Input
Amino acid sequence: MASGTNTLTAATLSASDAKRGRPGVAALTRMELGKLRKRPMTKVTFGLGILAAVGFMVLVLVAGTDGSREAFVFPNIVEDSFQLIQLMGNMTLPVIGAAIAGSEYGWGTMRLLLATGVGRGTLFAAKLLALLVVDLLFVLMMAVLICVEAACSGWLGGYEQDLSVIDGAWVADAVQLFATTAGLLFFLVIVAFGVAMLGRSMAAGIAVGIGLPIAQQIAAVIAPAVFGRLGELMVDFFPNTSFQALAMRAGFDPAPAEGLLSPERAIATLVGYSVLILGVAALVFWRRDVPSGD
Output
């Protein structure tokens, strides 16, 4: 089904190419979003997000204490909701990042699409932009759903929902939480996408994208024990260390900065890794022996 959809898209692009020249990034991004919308794993990803949000509410209402039920109201729940979003996104979004690249090679549709004359750089950028849109939509969907559930739960339970705390500073903190969560999840999507592009394998992208945070936690324990001070320096450059530095500073009651990397260094580390991964993946994709119009 998905392969047939990609074949039809390639044929359509071929006809369009003859009339108007190569499609641009915007057209290809819409095409990639259309393919993602029809793929079962995209529906599963968003479905799991909805189930997690609903399950969280049911767990609090059924098995929670009076204190936890009272805390599960809007706007109190906003900060905790992004922790759940981060957890679910870590396990699901890398799958989409790997699929948008690796499955094209597995089905053989990457060759067909490039043979229509689509530019490799344009296609690479379009896939990345489509992933960014999916990442933002996933975080927004789960955040809105959990907040609506919390508002309904507070209203039905008769708990006080203090909306007076919502002011300009509150909104700025909420936007920072959203941006931080979406950005950290997008880094894992980039890892999965880059590995899938390099290895032409969806399975490799999924394994590295989902397994990277777990592997870093293990390495963060072993490295200092084996290498001493050098191991501690190595851990400072782990993406997880930058994740913690940014996540713990985001929110309405951020953690003290002691022992954390500076935000500038954390962002620079993650951006550096992202540029390296995408740069190598783009270079390999550009030079790979797949027929195209380049």
